[in-house]
């Protein structure tokens, strides 16, 4: 599978007339509502989970901003 799959429907108006848009490999334009949007991979569902596994994000060091007496 070398080509990306096309989204079937516009996420905003539901129209099926979508075209690849220049400027990004994930970008699509809807010919009905003229919106340009991106389809992005977020992550994988954990086995048995209902939400994507969150990607690790930097968190502030505990105590860095908190002031203790
Ligand atoms: Zn649309």
Radius of gyration, CA atoms, in whole angstroms: 19 Å
The separation of the N and C termini measures 60 Å
By DSSP (H or I, 4+ residues per run), the number of helices equals 0
Which regions contain 5 or more consecutive residues with pLDDT less than 50?
A: none
| Helix-strand pattern | EEE
Cofactors and ligands present? Answer: zinc ion
Strand content: 5-15%
Instruction: Provide mean pLDDT, rounded.
Output: 81
Shape: elongated
In spatial order, strands of the major sheet run 1-2-3
SS class: mainly beta
Number of strands: 3
Main sheet record:
3 strands, antiparallel
The amount of helix comes to: under 10%
In short:
By secondary structure, the protein is mainly beta. The chain contains no helices and three strands. The protein has a domain of about 40 residues.
Detailed description of the structure:
- This protein has 69 residues and is an all-beta fold.
- It has a domain at 1-40.
- The chain is built from no helices and three strands.
- The protein has strands at 18-20, 27-30, 36-38.
- Strands 1-2-3 form a three-stranded antiparallel beta sheet, with no helix packed on it.
- The radius of gyration is 19 Å and the shape is elongated.
- The termini are far apart.
- Bound molecules: zinc ion (ZN).
